[in-house]
Amino acid sequence: MIPKDHPRYQSLLLREKIVIAHQNGILAESGMIAHGRGEAFDYLIGEKTSAPAKKAIKAAAAALLVAENPVLSVNGNTAALASRNMVNLAKTIPAKIEINLFYRTPERVEAVKNVLEKSGAEEILGTEDEDLKHVDNIKSPRSTASPEGIFTADVVLVPLEDGDRAEILVNSGKKIITIDLNPLSRTAQKSSITIVDNIVRAIPLIKKETKKLKNEDPRILKKIIKEFDNKKNLDESLTIITPK
Ligand code: PTJ
After folding, report:
1. Is the pTM of this model over 0.85?
2. 25 CB under 6 A from ligand 1?
3. CA angle, 63 as apex, 61 and 66 as ends, to 5°?
4. Which of 81, 110, 160 for mutating ligand 1's site (highest number of atoms within 8 Å of CB)?
């Protein structure tokens, strides 16, 4: 039990969620290492949503709203930290939810599916029942995708993604939105829209922005997307964490 007045309360709470998710078979072993890396970057950005992250969040909401087949990808860390918020976001857009694991095993797919169902998800793609396809014909478990989901999606939100798979997805011509606390990661650099923020803060903010923009003229939404410059935005995030 973490005392509420502990100066690192929020951060320790997330750690606890990660540990429990690991014990429950949701998290990949490497998920703990990934979380630790994210924690360090979050510390550097001051554990709050920055101005460039807010800009990226707005562009992400616009991209998800204009998409024909938007998909939210869920891995172990996302399920551990933001499962209910992902399900709520999917309902708001509306978008499909797909389980997409880098370290894929049938047991972990089942564990993530259970978490999503408990969080209110009705349809979950990417499970073991489906005949999954390979994005860009790369015969690797990293590139598997649901035919109704990521495989045919035009816009995919893939938080905390591994660099290899992010690259495969980008090369397949999709608009890739990621959430990654490390602005230098390959995923952050390769994606179309990178939100440099903690997933626990970013997802509720995307939902809020989506609600705000939902009835906006599609031409306005397209303008928001067009004016967003990911490289420039990443540079702005970097200046926040780089000592002057
Ligand atoms: O569940 P699986 O099998 O799909 O595996 C998931 C992990 C995360 C283990 C896998 O995709 C992986 O190895 O990812 P990487 O290459 O470690 O990249 C994860 C990125 O997420 C790193 O750049 C971290 O800084 C970042 N990150 C970690 N925690 C958070 C985060 N970004 C946002 N919010 C966080 N809470």
Report:
1. yes
2. no
3. 110
4. 160
In tens digits, the chain (244 residues) has pLDDT values of 778 888 788 899 999 999 999 999 999 999 999 999 999 999 999 999 999 999 999 999 999 999 999 999 999 999 999 999 999 999 999 999 999 999 999 999 999 999 999 999 999 999 988 999 988 766 677 778 999 999 999 999 999 998 888 888 898 899 999 999 999 999 999 999 999 999 999 999 999 999 999 999 999 999 999 999 999 999 999 999 987 7
The closest-lying atom of ligand 1 relative to the alpha carbon of residue 34 is 17
Whether 126 lines ligand 1, by a CB cut-off of 6 Å, is no
Ligand 1 neighbourhood includes 162 CB (under 6 angstroms): yes
> Is the Cβ atom of 171 under 6 angstroms away from ligand 1?
no
78 pocket-lining for ligand 1 (C-beta < 6 Å): no
Q: Are 6 and 12 contacting, i.e. CB atoms less than 8 angstroms apart?
A: yes
Asked if residue 149 lies in contact with residue 99, where contact means CB atoms within 8 angstroms, the answer is: no
Residue type, 100: N
Pick from 8, 11, 59: nearest CA to 38: 11
Interval between CA 209 and ligand 1 midpoint (Å): 24
Nearest CA among 103, 41, 56 for reference residue 75: 103
What's the CATH fold of domain 51-241?
A: Rossmann fold (3.40.50)
